[in-house]
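Q: What structure does this chain adopt?
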Amino acid sequence: MKKIMVLIILPLMTNCLTFRKNELAKYPSPVSVTTPVAKKLTYKLDFTSDAIVNGNNDKHEPVFVDERKKQLDAVIEETGLLIPASDANGEYTIRYYIKEVSSANQGVAFLFGFTGGLIPMYIGTELNSELEVKNKAGKTLGKIERKESFSMWGQLLFIFVAPFQRPLGKIEDIYRDQMRSSFEEAIAKKYFGNYAVNPQPNE
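A:
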């Protein structure tokens, strides 16, 4: 399966159109902290993920895990409330879980990769996430779930239809938007304390 996925990914990096359902729009509007934070709170991050491809657990590669952790740290820093703990004793434990469920025809996927994208193909993905916040005593303060679906259509000639598309960049945006939506709701629900928040329009 991993060899087939490599054959898929290489042509998709340039010859693909990505479409998202924008299911995040149904969740509460983003918020920003309006009360100055004199002393930022500390956290430790517990990140896990699963990749399900055609019903089989294919596990994300270490590079994916590292990238998502960096992305999470950046999103958390944007809240203006939290900074990573210097040791294992953060004031909060943030557990973030991603389950990525994808489906594609393996025969078509092989032909797509083997022909460099001449044969068209489709990949459908449902991205589920769960954010859980715990205090220093280990008590769960709350959980927030998100779901977003997107599809990728690949074909060699798409490079002429949309030469400036960045399909992998669009998927990165979906991960980031899902993370931001989760943390903004966690702030609004006061999982990290009683901070004044200001609703912002969705981007």
